[in-house]
Amino acid sequence: MTSSVSIIKCQNYEESLVLSGLRRALDLIGGIQTFVKRGDRVLLKPNLLYGKAPERAVTTHPAIIRGVIQMIREEGGFPFLGDSPGIGSASGVAGRAGIKRITDAMDCPIIEFNRPVLPKERKGRIFKNIEIDQTIFEADVIINLPKWKTHAQMLLTLGVKNLFGCIPGPRKALWHLKAGEDRKTFAQILLDVYYIIQPSLTILDGIIGMEGNGPNSGRPIPIGLILASGDSLSLDQVVCDLLGILRESLPTNRVAFEQGIEKDGIDVLGERIKEVKIPNFKFPTLSQMDWGLPDFLSKALKNVLTSKPMIDQEICNACGQCAEICPPKALVRKEKNLVFDYGRCIRCFCCLEVCPEGAISMKPGWALKMIGKRLKVKGER
Ligand code: SF4
Ligand code: SF4
Predict the structure, then answer these.
(1) Directed axis angle between helix 183-197 and helix 169-179, to 10°?
(2) Domain 3-275 classified CATH 3.40.50.11440?
(3) Which of 70, 75, 154, 291 is surrounded by the fewest CB atoms within 10 Å?
(4) Whole-prediction pTM value?
(5) Is 103 helix (H, G, I), strand (E, B) or coil?
(6) CATH architecture for segment(s) 308-363
(7) Which of 308, 326, 352, 360 to mutate to test the pocket of ligand 1 (most atoms within 8 A of CB)?
């Protein structure tokens, strides 16, 4: 089946520029009226990872939220916005990220995802018992609004990964524990969440993206693009094309291909990929290599083969948010400092995601250092 992904240039977050960019991106795939009808209750799912100012590129930019709300209203729909951030409330994060003043002014309620339910009809392909927030099933239309960012564990966080926030608060930690150190398992969980939620529309905020140590402490980078598609997976594949990496470099794409999702058959509309490719984008050092070793050997060699989180005590303000979010409780406070128990650590890098100071980084195991070169994204070209 062919799906369409539109690519539009948009150089900055000036309100009218973003609105016209959104309109052009959507017109290419059928217009907002294809997705929203009069009277629809439309849920917006932005990236609300952490409450930082919009220019830090951690969250979906308020100008994108504003533009999408306006278009929904023009179609006679009723927008509302929801998420379950890593730390804190959706409302609190939206406030610090400059989104709440927009939603308040435009009469768009913010819903906290704190009502987990087991979906009755829509199931994951492998994981059948993922509890999703009830709000998802009360919406007529779901619009996924991810931010273009790197991700220490999953390489990038785009359309599919953004939906993990539809699992209410502490339940996300349980799924991290379930995935353990296996990137492929985590990719499967993300895909199953995507199959349950089935957003009607995904719009990627790639005007300013994040490279390097994402998704919370990377470097904002001007990319100047908005992408839109009715299919998050196709959109994620086109981002790989734009970054010059193989589509299967992204673990969620790779697992989807293994399950028979077609790799080709995407209709790219608007800008041509070769004309808007992003050169020299800095990927994160991935938390783990696929060494092709037997399971027991990988486990035994965990500390020498895999990267591990480290805290820069000079930068750390001892807030304890890393310990709070750590799924296996592998971070403990010793006097003033936070200390890792690497035996328990599952290398999920949630601590890195939430650290407000960017004090946590990944340190490669010594075997990797002896190899003496940075890990390259598989298939980089
Ligand atoms: S979250 Fe960051 S700043 Fe806070 S205690 Fe952990 S390392 Fe330190
Ligand atoms: S210490 Fe960090 S990387 Fe290790 S399990 Fe805890 S949150 Fe995940």
Answers:
(1) 140
(2) yes
(3) 291
(4) 0.89
(5) helix
(6) 2-Layer Sandwich (3.30)
(7) 360
